[in-house]
Amino acid sequence: MMRGDTGDSVVSSTAGTDIPALDVSDHDDPAVIAEAARDDYSLHVVPRSWRLSSSKMALAWSSVMAAMFWVVVAAGASLVVGTRQALIGLVAAVVVHGGFCYVVSRTAASTGLTVGLFSRALFGYRGAAIATLALALTGTWFAVFEGSVLAVAAQAQFGGPIQLWYAVVTACGISLAIGGVRVWLEKVNAFLLPIFAVGLVATVVWSTVEYGYNSAWLTAEPQTATPMAGPGWLFVFAIYMGVFSNMLYTFDFARMGRVQDTRTNGLHTFGFTFYFFTILVNGAVGIYLVHTLPLQEVSEAGLVQGIVKLMGVAGLIFIVATQTKINTANFYIGSANFQSFFSRAFGLNLARTVWVFVVGVVSFAVMIMNIFSFINTWLAYQGTILASWVGIALVFIVARRRADLNAFEFRPGRVPSLNPGGITAWIVSSGVGIYLIASNSPIASTWALVITFVLSVLLSAVSLLASKDKWFALYRPHDPRDEVTDVWNDRIRCNSCHKSYVAVEMDRDPSRGYQPICASCATGHSFRAAAVAEATT
């Protein structure tokens, strides 16, 4: 190999075939850095040099904490099962979400992979596209809901047609999400976090001063009759399983955390501490407010209107901070995963900035069409797909935690099209969950996602026991990883895009004389076909 040289020297392969030497460097390519400022390596492995400190990672990820969803869903649940059962369910959700995200965040940081890249190890090259599409749509639909809440708040304070505020909110979301996490979103959320924290406390204090304090909220009994097939706390816990999508969000954010911070980030930034505040504290505030404020309806829009009516401009500022924070995450996740999906499925390689505008246009159109009930139904069914992904991913991570780097093979030329074990576990468990939800029975409301998750774990574990090596990797010669000293520090120049990326993602292209090729360029059809042919001969 050679360093910092683009000549035509060659090295001899083990098969006796002369292949081009690698153009290797030990520093970041300026062109790649400029691209990463927008895209955050959304189609590549995140190098160790592009990682955030634990404090900055916490600020960037705090965007997810601010969604009014966390306040409203606990409030509504308490009316169905009572305050005590609701709080038990919230605690259970904190423990499970915190524990699972601890595992997921550590794996994301150690591999530097996106959800899309990591999913190739679970389901194969083609199968992984489903995960990126599902997550892209999740981010977009959540952007619709949180954006509409902000629009309702603005209309409640200033009046005017709701369509105008939909447009304003969408424009703001696009402008804030164009910058990547490392360059921009961390700074935005650092500014908004104090406003959110002060606003949350102020809402509780203000409502108490205005309407008085009554400790009866702590022992309130169910007020809304809802059929369920289990204890109230399990019903509440199952509601929070519907947002297991947060664990996929975690993966896409945590890949930018430093490896030396994995324990801190796992426990606090993404894990138990985060969910203590996000689920339990936000939830307790919601339960208190629903028993204190005179609300017309228990919904995100209803609670927002109640807060703005109570606090005026101060309430609007609080709502703007909360919804802006969460929508930076929604727009980012939606755009990054649309970019990944269309790159893989159709070979359409566009900058993440373009997909930010796509997310904005789609979310605005959905708000204008007022099809929120349809989106709610979509998310219910899609929740089974994502809950199943989490179960399969956890089994795979635990089973292969002591394996070498190739345990998480993701390179397009070195993974099979489909992993039969992972795909089967995903389809069967998700299918059962979708069937249960479609039945609209009490069992479905309490057990559908629980059964989906447990089934995905069991099927995935069985598939791993019966698996073959070829399910996870295509074995081909001339692996660039074997030709460098340090796969994380050495950068190799791609012969297709002429940019240098860390060696851990690089491959050789048998369709072009074994020239080096990066993970993004390797999604091309000719490379993929040549790689598969080479592996099967």
UniProtKB/TrEMBL annotation:
The chain crosses the membrane at residues 58-80, 86-104, 125-144, 164-185, 192-213, 233-251, 272-290, 302-321, 354-372, 378-399, 420-438, 444-466. Keywords: Membrane, Transmembrane, Transmembrane helix. It comes from the Bacteria. This is Purine-cytosine permease family protein.
